[in-house]
Amino acid sequence: MNLLERYLGREFAKGYLVVLLVLLGLFGFLDLVDELSEVGEGNYRLKDAFIVVGLTFPTKILDFAAICTLMGGSFGLAGLAKGSELLAMRSSGMSVVQMVIALLKSVVIAALLLVVIAQFIAPLCERWAFLHRHQALVGSDSLRTEQGFWSRNRLQFLNVGTLLHSRVPEDLNIYQFDATGRLQQFIHAKRADIRDRAHWILEDVFIKAWNQGLLKTQHHKEWRWDSFLSTDQLQALELPAETLSVTDLFSYVQYLIHTGQNAERYELLFWQRVLLPVTMAVMILLLVPIMVASPRAQSFGLQVVLAVMVGLLYFLATQVVANAGLLLGISPLTTAMVPTLVVLVIALFLCRRAIWQ
Q: How many C-beta neighbours within 10 Å does residue 140 have?
């Protein structure tokens, strides 16, 4: 990058961060208000609400990335235009195309940081937030230790060693005791397919039962087990989709498809994460009319306001389109691409109009 590109990228980053902080503060406050309704239940206290809301910020950074690119970029360029710095850049020989390329370089850097957040930071924070909130609210007879997930129901104990894709129980041990505290039956399964809360399909199952001092061992390829887990206990075992990294989402989608289950919700989230850098790049094109506008033009302020409105509408539209796509059974890839394609069409129209004015 030359000096002008670095300067333009720095102003873009400033605008991006300002908008991001404002959105995090606004939506964080709304989430906190929502969490306050749960304060006082179980062991859930005000400090827990702050912790849970704070841990969701990395995911919000991903959700706001596209509109921060547009709104932050428009504010950054507005500051440059106000001081006639955009005009000076163009007078020095920096074309609109070079400005777009400079902003795209900044977007690439931001996208790389977002990839790290989506793959490592956001899933971990979402997992901590979910488990912290659930444990404080419900308590229950379920807990997570270094030996995995444990739960009990009177004389029966369940231990889940690991969770494949944070959703599929693996390495299960089920202990059944009698009223005197003696172990009657031990079940070990390689994996469990949770078709519904009450009925699990265990795979590669070994059953050891004691009857009058005699040990009997059986092996089954599949075994139906009547689960004792309540809805709250099951929620502590099955983590939300937001706790999955991008690679885990892809693997889990393949697993659901392979087992004949509905994978649309997880596939949609996967494509939204993957297409995020593309969406951010498309948002840069919406800034072209601001770049070519004269600082003294009456339409300049209107273009900044338009960019902000498009950003907000895009954020709302992605939520509506996502829910509509899932409801109507539209391909998740198509559902994820529609808002970005609409913005691309608007951007190309505005670019053509601004350049040929």
A: 17
pTM greater than 0.70 (yes/no): yes
Any domain includes 202? yes
Same domain, yes or no: 326 and 185: no
Residues 338 and 303 in one domain: yes
For the segment 210-258, what is each residue's pLDDT rounded down to a tens digit? 877 789 999 999 999 999 998 878 877 878 889 999 999 999 999 899 8
Q: CA dist 331 to 317, 321, 327, 348, 349, Å?
A: 17, 12, 11, 25, 27
244 within domain boundaries: no
CA gap 202, 9 in Å, rounded: 55
Containing domain of residue 342, as a range?
3-139+266-355
Same domain as 61, residue 87 = yes
Residue 27 has pLDDT above 80, yes or no: yes
Closest CA to 285 of 258, 310, 262: 310
Strand partners, 222: 203
- Per-residue confidence (pLDDT) for residue 20, from 0 to 100: 97
**Is 341 within a domain?**
yes
Q: Report pLDDT for 299.
A: 57
Q: How many domains does the chain have?
A: 2
Residues 118 and 14 placed together within one structural domain of the fold? yes
Whether residue 239 is contained in a domain is answered as: no
Do 120 and 148 have their domain in common? no
